[in-house]
Structure formats: structure tokens, C-alpha cells
Design goal:
Layout (H helix, E strand, L loop, with lengths): L7 H13 L2 H8 L3 H15 L4 E4 L2 E4 L1 H27 L5 E6 L1 H18 L4 E6 L13 E5 L7 E14 L2 H4 L21 E4 L5 H8 L11 E2 L2 H9 L4 E5 H10 L10 E12 L6 H16 L1
Parallel strand pairs: 3-4, 3-5, 7-8, 7-9
Antiparallel strand pairs: 1-2, 5-10, 6-9, 6-10
């Protein structure tokens, strides 16, 4: 079926001429001659059987018909341009792996692992983006998300990356200001009530749940609260108090001696971390390779 559509060149000349109200300036923008632009506009007017411009000496005035047509044409040109840009972007799909992850999770856990993956698979260009809300992720622009359980990504394939464990940590400097009972050789989990407690506003039940897991009675949980885990970790490092955080976020600081865990080992929570990807990207080479590599790495630990 033959479509009743003018040439794209005529439409581009029309759009540029309206913006500049000048065939000369439109020609400069489009790298054409002024006569070529004028001819394209005349052809378009003949095609539509309508005048789009009034030529007044050296001035160009848009007619009412021209203004109405411009409002219709611009969104269509924008749509065609965006479609072309999306197709051009798809040329990079075979080499680009875009991962979206929770900011603190990415900084403290994902990034240390990525160096190894990049070394093993230098053919992929990795892009890491911050994840704020898994439900709002655009599956067109993201290949994989690493997220906290409960925020399941709609229309995605998901794998459990790990079960969450949490641990109570603090700066070794904080312990210097407190004394154990005379009969104690080490700190005990019950001693935590002697210290100021730090909180995550995203995990308001962290301390009550930790107390229950340790067999302790719930007490007062007053203390300073932080919106993000990276803030909470920094507060603990700076001896502001004791914080309950996911153990995977504490590993690096514990190894470096910036934090210690004197109140017992990590305890499991009902929550999990998930690796998810859009169902239509399940066979994408870089998705398959990264998924298998990361899941195998976690199984081996």
C-alpha cells in the first residue's frame, strides 16, 4: 500500500524553516542551498495543496495552516529520530552489560568483584547504575539488577543471590571508652545495651530483630538514624555507636580493622538479595555469562 507521505527531506526543510523563519538559515543548518530548501517547501505545499508560508519581500511568515501542520509534524519527526537512536544503541547490545544495583551494595560488594569479571571478560563494556526502586527500572536500558528481596522486578527472571545475614559492628575506638565486667574476657552480645545504637531508617526493625535472634529482651532503641547504609557504616567507623548492617556490607571494613564485631557472629534474616533480568534478555550472551559467573562465585563461597 502506497502511503500518502511527503519526502523526509521536505519535512526536515519545513521544520527548520519554521524554527528560523528563514530559508537561508534553514539551508545552512541542513547543509543545503537556499534554492534547494525553497524548492522542497514548494513541493510540500503542492503535495498538501496548501500554502504553508507567506513570502513578504525578504520576510517569511508562517500561515495558520503551516502552524497547525508544524504541531503535527514535529512529534512525528521526534519519534522517528528517537526510533533511529534506539536502533543505533542496539548496535552496542552485544558488547555492553548494564547493571543496576543498590548504591551501598554496589560500592561495598559488587565493585570489588567486578575487577575479576572484567579481567576474565574484557570483551564487555560494563556500566553500573544506581538502583533506587526496582519496580521503576526500565527493562530497555538495564540488563541486570541486583536488589533486595521483596522488591521483585515485574516481568523478570530472578535468582537468589544470597540469603541476608546481619551483624552488629562498631569502631574499635568506641570500645576503648567502655569497660567489660571484671569476670569477662570478651564482650558478650548482651553488652550492646551499654553502647549508643545507630539505626537505618530503611530498616526500622533491624535492632529488634537482631535482639530476638540473639535471645535478648527488647529494650530501648533510641539513637541516631541514617537514611542510607553507607552513612550508617561511616557513622560506625567514626565511633558514633553500634550499627546492625548486612554482613556483606561490613566485610571490607572488618578485614581492614575499621570495624569490629565484638557482640557475636552474623545472624540470618528472612530476607534475600536477588539477581534479576528481563525475560526477553534471558539469552543475551553477556547476561548469561555474568549471571552464571556470579551465581557460581556465590555457591563456591
Amino acid at each position: 500500500m502506497r502511503r500518502y507521505i511527503p519526502s523526509s527531506t521536505a519535512l526536515k526543510c519545513f521544520e527548520a524553516s519554521v524554527r528560523h523563519l528563514s530559508f537561508t538559515r534553514a539551508a545552512e543548518e541542513l547543509c543545503l542551498t537556499q534554492s534547494a530548501v525553497s524548492r522542497q517547501i514548494r513541493n510540500l505545499e503542492e503535495f498538501l495543496s496548501r500554502d504553508l508560508f507567506i513570502r513578504l519581500n525578504k520576510r517569511l511568515v508562517l500561515t495558520g495552516t503551516g502552524a497547525a501542520y508544524y504541531k503535527e509534524v514535529v512529534p512525528l519527526l521526534d519519534g522517528m529520530e528517537n526510533a533511529c537512536l534506539r536502533m543505533l544503541h542496539r548496535e552496542d547490545e552485544k558488547t555492553t552489560l548494564t547493571i543496576s544495583a543498590l548504591p551501598t551494595f554496589a560500592s561495598h560488594w559488587l565493585v570489588p568483584h567486578l575487577a575479576e569479571f572484567q579481567q576474565q571478560h574484557p570483551q564487555f563494556q560494563i556500566k553500573v547504575r544506581s538502583l533506587d526502586d526496582a519496580a521503576k527500572v526500565d527493562p530497555e536500558s538495564i540488563d541486570i539488577i541486583l536488589h533486595y528481596g521483596g522488591d521483585h522486578w515485574p516481568r523478570a527472571v530472578s535468582h537468589q543471590l544470597m540469603q541476608e545475614k546481619v551483624i552488629a559492628v562498631c569502631s574499635p575506638r568506641l570500645l576503648e571508652h567502655y569497660q567489660k565486667s571484671d569476670h569477662q574476657a570478651e564482650w558478650e552480645c548482651g553488652d550492646v545495651v551499654m553502647f549508643p545504637l545507630l539505626h537505618s531508617s530503611a530498616r526500622i526493625n533491624a535492632w529488634p530483630d537482631w535482639m530476638v535472634a540473639q535471645g535478648l529482651e527488647n529494650g530501648s532503641f533510641a539513637g541516631t538514624s541514617f537514611e542510607h547504609f553507607h552513612m550508617l557504616i561511616e557513622a560506625a567507623k567514626n565511633a558514633m555507636g553500634v550499627a546492625v548492617i548486612p554482613s556483606i556490607l561490613a566485610e571490607g571494613s572488618l578485614r581492614a580493622g575499621e570495624l569490629v564485631a565484638p557482640f557475636g557472629d552474623a545472624v540470618a534474616t528472612p530476607h534475600e538479595y536477588l539477581l534479576s533480568y528481563p525475560a526477553d534478555k534471558a539469552d543475551l550472551e553477556q547476561v548469561v555469562i555474568f549471571r552464571d559467573w556470579l551465581l557460581a562465585k556465590q555457591t563456591a563461597q
